[in-house]
């Protein structure tokens, strides 16, 4: 008998192809990175606790007619506007201070895609922040209505919700822009709080800057968003001008810095 041996060869593996992650996946990763750090987690907890405290204070200090769903909802937006932008700052600066930029940009060499993902994650964060604000306001308003018949009005318009979403998103992007501009957590956070405050004080103390503040002070131009009425063309123009100064300009300069900065 003649035995025929058949030698089988293992198939030769072809070159591996790397599929770059999609923008949706990158946005999800950046959103998760905002909450995964200890600083990010405690910032969100602090924001929630302050919002609850504001609602409780209104229940005890505000007059019953002022204890409404709209008033409680609007006041819970202010801690969000102050603290959540810090998450936007840290989403950029932590890449350099924690030395994760090398990994981030090695997996996705196109830095502009990372920036877009961080911006989209900031937008999502600003929108998600509306949920606890609405929940805390609803609980507080229900308690107010149960304690006093003159309180607890549920009147609420969709226009106000849209303006609140815009307010949150602009503020988080404000933080993101400062993070890209300075790329250092301590410097960016300090200047984020100091520079707008000093600018507001100057425009208040110097009468010649009053007209300028009506166009370039974000705290002034965003005030009509809380008046529950449609903004006029002039108000939209002033809001756009202040956003251009505090969000777009530092964001563009920061983007140029980020694209040129050497990763080490």
Automatic annotation (TrEMBL):
Superkingdom of the organism of origin: Bacteria
Record's protein name: ABC-2 family transporter protein
Originating organism: Asanoa hainanensis
Transmembrane segments: 41-61, 73-93, 114-140, 160-182, 189-209, 239-259
Keywords of the record: Membrane, Transmembrane, Transmembrane helix
Taxonomic path: Bacteria, Bacillati, Actinomycetota, Actinomycetes, Micromonosporales
């Amino acid at each position: 008998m003649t035995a025929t041996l058949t030698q089988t060869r293992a198939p030769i593996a072809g070159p591996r192809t790397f599929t770059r992650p999609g923008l949706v996946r990158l946005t999800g990763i950046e959103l998760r990175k905002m909450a995964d750090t200890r600083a990010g987690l405690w910032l969100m907890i602090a924001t929630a606790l302050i919002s609850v405290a504001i609602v409780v204070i209104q229940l005890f200090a505000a007059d019953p007619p002022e204890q409404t769903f709209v008033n409680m909802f609007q006041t819970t937006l202010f801690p969000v506007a102050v603290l959540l932008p810090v998450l936007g700052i840290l989403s950029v600066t932590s890449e350099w201070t924690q030395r994760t930029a090398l990994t981030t940009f090695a997996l996705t060499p196109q830095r502009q895609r990372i920036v877009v993902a961080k911006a989209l994650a900031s937008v999502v964060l600003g929108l998600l922040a509306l949920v606890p604000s609405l929940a805390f306001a609803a609980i507080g308003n229900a308690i107010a209505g149960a304690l006093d018949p003159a309180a607890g009005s549920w009147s609420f318009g969709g226009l106000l919700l849209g303006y609140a979403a815009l307010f949150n998103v602009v503020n988080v992007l404000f933080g993101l822009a400062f993070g890209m501009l300075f790329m250092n957590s301590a410097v960016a956070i300090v200047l984020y709080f100091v520079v707008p405050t000093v600018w507001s004080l100057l425009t208040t103390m110097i009468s010649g800057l009053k007209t300028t503040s009506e166009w370039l002070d974000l705290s002034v131009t965003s005030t009509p968003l809380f008046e529950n009425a449609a903004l006029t063309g002039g108000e939209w123009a002033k809001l756009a001008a202040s956003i251009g100064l505090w969000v777009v300009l530092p964001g563009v300069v920061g983007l140029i810095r980020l694209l040129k900065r050497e990763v080490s």
